[in-house]
Amino acid sequence: MEGNGKMITAGIDVGAATTKAAVVIDDEMAGYCIMPSGAIIEKTIREVSEKAFSNAGISQGDIEYVIGTGWGRNAVKIADKTVTEIACHGAGAGWSHPKTRTIIDIGGQDSKAISLGDDGSVIDFVMNDKCAAGTGRFLEVLCGILQTEITKLGALALASDDPCEVSSTCTVFAETEVVGQRAKGRSVEDLVAGVIKSMIKRVVQMSMRLKVADDIVFTGGVAKNIGATKFLGDELGSGVVVLEEPQIMGALGAALVARKELIKKMSN
After folding, report:
1. 89 shares its domain with 132
2. Judging by beta carbons within 10 Å of its beta carbon (0-12, 13-18, 19+), is residue 237 exposed, middle or buried?
3. Which residues neighbour 207 within 8 Å (Cβ) at sequence distance 6 or greater?
4. Is 68 found in the same domain as 156?
5. Does 146 share its domain with 205?
6. Are residues 216 and 130 part of one domain?
7. How many angstroms separate the Cα of 205 from the Cα of each of 125, 235, 248?
8. What's phi and psi for 40, nearest 5 deg?
9. What are residue 52's DSSP bridge partners?
C-alpha cells in the first residue's frame, strides 16, 4: 500500500485489434487508454499502459497489482497474473452497471455473449472467434468497399429506408454481395444498414444459445455504432445499455480482479 493508504491496481486487455489499459484507485476508475494493437504488441502494451497511468496521475511504481487479459495477455510482462477475458468483461460490466445479467460484446476480431448471476459472477458464455462476419472486422471490410470512415457507419445505417438483404454467413461472400448490390444502384445507406443488420442477426443467433435476460449491456468497439445499437435492440426486442466507454470493460474488469487479488494477498 502507498503511504496515503490508497489501493492502486491496473488491468491490461490485449485484443487483436485494440489494446486497452485501465487503472482503479480504491474502488474508482482513475484513468484508461485505448490504442490500436499494431504490429509490435510489446511496444503497444508499454505505450497504452504509460498513457493510462499518466491519465490516472500515477506512475508504474505506484501500482500494486496488475492483471493481463485478452487475446495477447501472455505478452503483458508487468502482469502479476493473467485472467480470461470472459471473467474480466463480466467484472467490468457488472461493476459499471450492477443490474447487468447479459453482456453482448462485439470487438474487432471476435464477438461473445456472457450471462451473469445475481452476484455478478459469470454463469455461462458463447464466443465467435473463428469468423469475421460477426465482428468489427466485417465493418472494416465494408468501409473499404464504400470508401467511408467507420465512425460514419452508424448514422448512415439509421438513414436507410430499405436495408439490403445480406444473406451470406462469410465475410468474403458478403463482400461479393455488397459489391453486387452496389452495382445495381443501391444506396450507401441501404448497403450499410444491410451489413450491420446481418452482423447483428448472427451475433443474436449465437447469443440465443444462452438464456438472454433483461438488463442487456452492449460492449466492445461496435457498441459505439448507433446503428448497431438500434438494430441489436430491435432484434432482441429489448432495450440495451451502452456504457460511457464500452470498449474498456475487459481492462476495467482486469483492474477490479487485480484489486480482489491484492486484498486476498494482503489478508494472508
Report:
1. no
2. exposed
3. 102, 104, 113, 126
4. no
5. yes
6. yes
7. 13, 10, 25
8. -110, 90
9. none
According to DSSP, the residues that pair with 65 across neighbouring strands are: 9
The pLDDT assigned to 232 comes to: 95
Strand 122-128's sheet: what is its strand order? Answer: 122-128, 111-116, 102-106, 216-219, 240-242
Q: CA angle at residue 219 from 41 to 177, to 5 degrees?
A: 85
Torsion of CA 182, 185, 189, 191, to 10 degrees: -30
* Count of domains observed in the chain: 2
From start to end of 209-255, where are the E strands? 216-219, 240-242
Per-10-residue mean pLDDT, the chain, length 268: 73 94 96 95 97 97 96 95 96 95 90 91 87 73 85 94 78 74 87 90 91 88 94 91 95 97 89
Distance CA 11, CA 23 (A): 7
Name the residue range of residue 131's domain: 100-242
Q: Report the distance separating Cα 247 and Cα 107, nearest Å.
A: 8
Q: Are residues 232 and 110 located together in one domain of the fold?
A: yes
> Are both 139 and 32 inside the same structural domain?
no
Q: What is d(CA 95, CA 28) in angstroms, rounded to the nearest whole number?
A: 10
Q: What is the CATH number of the domain that holds 60?
A: 3.30.420.40
The pLDDT, as a whole number, for residue 4 is: 56
Q: What are phi and psi of 67, to 5 degrees?
A: -115, 135
Considering only CA atoms, which of 264, 242, 253 is closest in space to residue 87? 253
Q: Domain check: are 121 and 234 in the same one? A: yes
